[in-house]
Amino acid sequence: MALSVPSAKFSSGVEDDKKQDAFGFPKFVVMGHRGFGMNMLQSPDEKMKSIKENSILSFNVAADFPIDFVEFDVQVIRDGCPVIFHDIFMFTQEQGVITEKRVTEMALQEFISYGPQKDGANVKPMFRKTKDGRIFEWKVVKDDPLCTLQDAFVKVKRSVGFNVELKFDDNIVYGEEELRQTLDNILKVVDEYAENRPIMFSSFHPDAARLIRNMQMSYPVFFLTNGGCEIYEDVRRNSLDEAIKICKEGGLQGIVSEVKAILRTPNAIQRVKDSKLSLISYGQLNNVVEVIYLQYLMGVEGVIVDMVMEISEAIASISVKNKADGEEDNGRKSMIMLGEERTKVKISKDAITFLTKFASKLLQQ
């Protein structure tokens, strides 16, 4: 079942004077990364190339599993239309030559002309450039046309919430007015089509996160950080402590952190909670069930995952049974009940130590 909330608009947790109340999800939440999972075209794992990421098909397939949100990337193109696409540049092949164009410089008709069309044609095949410079044709088992933010609101099942990532180019310095105009175009679509769907905003851009918090008080805003796993010129992006500072100064509700940063600095979880902030995570380690269990025990409130089917079904119906009054203390901290069969898993201090060591080994890989 998807997250049930009385309204699409979470309690803002922020008043006009920036006073911040604690924000928290009503349950441990699972979010589908770019829908049913991101595409890694260079990966030998066919699961990473099953359905076109950030597509209506991907969102609706993900919504069939016990998740609460789909996460997707929104950019505003030249004519002011918010579209859903992760990469900053679009690559295609023309007469045997790979060409590229910045997504935000396109008009809508040009943007949607890439990739598969509704009539089955594919005149402009899409390619993707990896961080190491390699280029791969964007081939997946189940392809789907590109889409706009409005398309998502209209065509995606209402059982699932939206984690709207506000996407910007790390290599561009944006002025406040430019950011404000971009965010205003996004908010116009949200205001018109959101209805009762749960929505949250997130962004790696500190100023964009602060601005959208000031421009609306209805939906929670989370700051995205990789917590120092990569280093940026903007120091505000380089640690969980900087992320906490941004949230407190801007009245944001929480942090979305790369899971590696959480596992490397677990003490930061308590600092996040002491700051009355929510904490969820993203990253490839979130496709390992044991890492999800460990985060749950550590107090992380939710996870963004690629392996939607495997992870969502593994952690469905998590509940905790604490030691009953008068029960002999045999070192057991709790029992986590997982899945349809609600198999009881005894979690002891030794088990937590083991999971921590297991996660540490994954970090070294």
Envelope shape: globular
Total DSSP helices: 11
Number of DSSP strand runs: 17
Tell me the strand percentage band.
Answer: 15-25%
Rg, alpha carbons: 21 Å
Structural class: alpha/beta
The proportion of residues forming helix, as a percent range, comes to 25-40%
Average pLDDT confidence is 86
Distance between the termini: 34 Å
Q: Indicate the low-confidence ranges by residue numbers.
A: 1-18, 319-347
Query: How are the strands of the biggest sheet laid out side by side?
Result: 1-2-9-10-11-12-13-14
Give the ordered list of helices and strands.
EHEEEEHEEEHEHEHEHEHHEHEHEEEH
The main sheet comes to:
8 strands, parallel, barrel
Oligomer: single chain
What order do the helices and strands come in, and which of them pair?
Layout: E1 29-33, H1 56-63, E2 69-76, E3 82-84, E4 89-94, E5 97-102, H2 108-111, E6 126-129, E7 135-137, E8 147-148, H3 149-155, E9 161-166, H4 176-193, E10 199-203, H5 206-215, E11 221-225, H6 240-250, E12 254-258, H7 259-264, H8 267-274, E13 278-282, H9 289-298, E14 302-305, H10 308-314, E15 319-322, E16 332-338, E17 343-348, H11 349-364
Parallel strand pairs: 1-2, 1-14, 2-9, 9-10, 10-11, 11-12, 12-13, 13-14
Antiparallel strand pairs: 2-3, 3-8, 4-5, 4-6, 6-7, 15-16, 16-17
Helix pairs in contact: 3-4, 4-5, 9-11
Please provide a written account of the structure:
By secondary structure, the chain is an alpha/beta fold. Helix content is 29%, strand content 23%. It is built from 11 helices and 17 strands. The chain has an 8-stranded parallel beta barrel, surrounded by 7 helices. A 4-stranded antiparallel beta sheet has the order 5-4-6-7, with no helix packed on it. A 3-stranded antiparallel beta sheet has the order 15-16-17. Helix 4 packs across helix 5 and helix 9 (289-298) packs across helix 11. The longest helix is centred in the middle third of the chain and has 18 residues, at 176-193. It is globular and about 55 Å long. Mean pLDDT is 86; it is low at 1-18 and 319-347.
